Amino acid sequence: MTTNILEMRSITKTFPGVKALQDVTLEVARGEIHAICGENGAGKSTLMKVLSGVYPHGTYDGDIVFENEVVAFRDIRDSEAKGIVIIHQELALSPYLSIAENIFLNNEVKGAFGLIDWNKANSEAAKLLARVGLRENPTTRILDLGVGKQQLVEIAKALSKKVKLLILDEPTAALNDEDSDHLLDLILHLKGQGITSIIISHKLNEIKKIADSVTVIRDGKTIETIAKADVSEERIIKDMVGRDLEHRYPEHTPNIGEEILRVENWTAHHPQDANRVMVDNVNLNVRRGEIVGIAGLMGAGRTEFAMSLFGRSYGSRISGKVFKAGQEIQTRSVSEAIGNGLAYATEDRKMYGLNLIEDIKRNISAASLEKLSRAGLVNDNEEFKVANEYRKDMNIKAPSVLSKTGKLSGGNQQKVVLSKWIYSDPDVLILDEPTRGIDVGAKYEIYTIINRLAAEGKGIIVISSELPELLGICDRIYALSEGRITGELPIEEATPEAVLKLMTMESPR
Question: Which parts of the chain register pLDDT below 50?
Answer without folding.
Answer: none
